[in-house]
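Annual report, structural modelling task.

Input specification for the iron/sulfur cluster complex:
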Amino acid sequence: MDQNKYFSLFACCFCVKGAKEGIIIDSQRGAFLAVPNELIPILNKSNQHKIRDLIEQQYPHLERGILAYFGKLVEMEYGFLTSEPERFPAIDLQWKTPFPLAAGIVEYDFSSASFDLIHCLKLLEEQCCELVQFRFFNQVDVAQLDKTLVQFSQSRFRRFEILMNWQSYKQHKEALNELSETHGRISNYGIFNSPVQESDNKITHYTFPMEPGKYVERVGKSGFLTSLNHYTESLKFNTGLNGKIAIDITGRLMNHPAHSKSFGMIQDTETLSRLLEQDDFLQQQRILKTEVQPCKSCQFRNMCHTVSELIPGEEGYKMAHPCSFDPAANEWRRQTESSLKPA
Ligand code: SF4
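The model returned the following structure:
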């Protein structure tokens, strides 16, 4: 290795320190790599000092390790050597969105509906909501769903996710396949209480059940988000909840159907615009992982989109629905199932 050069991570790569181990997120390739925490301050300044100066002046005791890691990171294309580090400026980390609403979760039961689905969708569309995640309980009325989606075939919605339980899916499998062919905006089906955990094209099966007012999102390595958009959003907001709204099975307006707080009923609402600017509605969206125990010391905090309600604890906030990762031990406490794509 030419030690007269500088080592630099690619601008799309970000280091995150954890309690016991760190990671480098590659936001361009959608990957991440575990690295020792001790390497992170070195990586943060390696493009300001030639490799030889960095080692001799600051880390003579770590020479072998630094050279081995720089070599490995070059080989794995997380970084490169250069004589002109000033030609590679840092990436802009501002996060902006033109949409007040990224996603709406809608719990609905066709057999005992508490609210008008069309009215609900109109209110979401008015806010330029990009994605609607339907959570259908009991039997799905495919004909009625088709009619509803036809009404929004020219809408600003970009994607519909449809979650249901296995019994209903089994009964309507063919009709649901036709429905997704007719409505190109149906991006995927999530099937719960399935006999097997598997994923096939647009359909993902989960073995655990989906119930009204309960979490179905499970935090796990396979569900982490590594995009630049997610990383930059995570520096400003609680990504699991930011820009989202939920309508639970009774019509309550919430941050998430499993949370304890509600903000009125969809049946009594003519527009969502005031609610989306209300401080108490936005409060959960604004809490950073660095304020939450134990997320503040977790190396996955900028990729994780947990939707747990956050409640005040002794040291900042804690999760009402804790995940199974223990940053202090750097261990998953039990087997996690893959998480759903975030709403
Ligand atoms: S500790 Fe927090 S940030 Fe880490 S995986 Fe669990 S929920 Fe996500």
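The longest helix spans residues 166-182.
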